[in-house]
Design brief:
heterodimer, A: alpha+beta, N-terminal domain of TfIIb, four-stranded antiparallel beta sheet, 5 helices, B: alpha/beta, six-stranded mixed beta sheet, two-stranded parallel sheet, 8 strands, elongated
Chain lengths: 133, 240
């Protein structure tokens, strides 16, 4: 699971107020490089919950990867932004799309309910008594 | 993608350059997707429990042959209506304004179809059902095409495949009879090619031979029948 997906995922279970953001406990993660797409990153930027994304990188042990405040659209659309290693675009791209959580747990901030992640796939199945009506 | 299974359709999404999140209730299907090297992020989840995505983050949604499973009560505690409500409600919330969802489904019967469409409408979606090949039991496919937010010029329903001809509303099934697109809450059902009225027989009425025979029959019964002339049973100009 990439951090892009983690940024959008919430707990659906009974008792969760927002169920978001899910706390990340990482046992194993990997990186897989892909070509950055500036247009995509610019488009997704306004939809991201920045503090949750930063918290996720901290949970991975990468506190230096992202700044406390999000990059601006100007920074992402600047000439050569995609080529600049260590620049705001590459950092955002790496955080969102190149990191893959393989094993770990997602924890609901409201109820502490745990959702295990195995082989990169979070198990979000709820028991019958947890389903909201 | 709701009901992504082994990720076959997800590959097409990836080829088109999309980032996607795939939901499936079957761990073994997802394992196959992993073996295939699926690029999307997979979730082991039951869409009838809600999608669990925060509001307005998704640009589009597709589903292939999965939504109808929500109509089945697999366990005694399942209530299909609640499951449909959880799915469509959470789908509506997580879609960005103007985003579109296209869900291909197989409905066992009209009741199931209505259940699905009603649930979508109650969740706030606009749109309708497009049916490809409505008269082929093999090829027939129903697509629930939904939009979030006010309909625009671009949100009109596509034409279903089947035969040439015009899309028309099936008055028996549409909810308010007019399929009025100005109402955000309206869901019209458009069925491509209603069955045409039985065509007139190609024979163009009955032939001269039949007529002469009939007249002879009537004479044998003792009726008064005009004599046969060269005009009998002649093809006339059509008046209509």
């Amino acid at each position: 699971m990439r951090l892009l997906t983690h940024n959008m995922l919430a707990s659906n279970a009974r008792g969760a107020v927002t169920g978001y953001p899910l706390k990340l406990q990482v046992v194993k993660w990997s990186t897989k490089e892909v070509e950055p797409n500036a247009d995509f990153l610019r488009g997704i930027l306004p939809k991201l919950d920045w503090p949750a994304l930063v918290a996720a990188t901290h949970a991975l042990g990468l506190p230096e990867l992202l700044p406390e405040t999000p990059p601006t659209d100007a920074e992402l659309s600047a000439e050569g932004a995609a080529e600049e290693e260590g620049g705001p675009l590459r950092r955002l791209h790496r955080a969102l799309l190149e990191i893959h959580i393989e094993e770990g747990t997602l924890v609901c901030p409201d109820t502490e309910r745990c959702f295990p992640i195995s082989r990169g796939v979070p198990n979000m199945l709820l028991h019958e008594d947890e389903v909201r009506n | 993608m709701a009901g992504c299974g082994s990720g076959l359709s997800g590959e097409t999404l990836t080829e088109q350059g999309h980032h996607w999140i795939g939901y499936d209730i079957s761990k073994s299907m997802l394992d196959v997707a992993l073996e295939r090297g699926s690029e999307g992020d997979l979730l082991l989840a039951d869409m009838g429990q809600g999608l669990g995505l925060r509001p307005g983050v998704i640009d589009g949604a597709i589903s292939i042959s999965a939504v109808q499973w929500l109509c089945n009560a697999d366990k005694s505690c399942h209530n299909p209506r609640l499951r449909l409500k959880a799915f469509f409600g959470s789908l509506y919330r997580c879609l960005a304004r103007g985003a579109r969802a296209v869900l291909q489904f197989y409905a066992d019967n009209v009741k199931q179809s209505e259940m699905i469409v009603t649930a979508a409408m109650r969740a706030g979606f606009a749109g309708g059902v497009v049916i490809d090949w409505p008269h082929s039991s093999k090829a027939k496919k129903s697509y629930l095409v939904l939009t979030c937010g006010p309909p625009s010029l671009h949100s009109s329903l596509p034409k279903g495949k089947g035969q040439d001809g015009v899309m028309c509303s099936d008055d028996d099934e549409s909810n308010d009879g007019s399929g009025d697109d100005d109402e955000a809450q309206t869901v019209g059902i458009y069925e491509r090619n209603r069955p045409k009225k039985r065509q007139k027989t190609k024979k163009n009425g009955k032939g001269k031979a039949w007529l002469l025979n009939k007249k002879e029959q009537m004479r044998r019964r003792g009726r008064d029948v005009p004599a046969d002339t060269k005009y009998t049973g002649r093809k006339r100009k059509s008046y209509f």
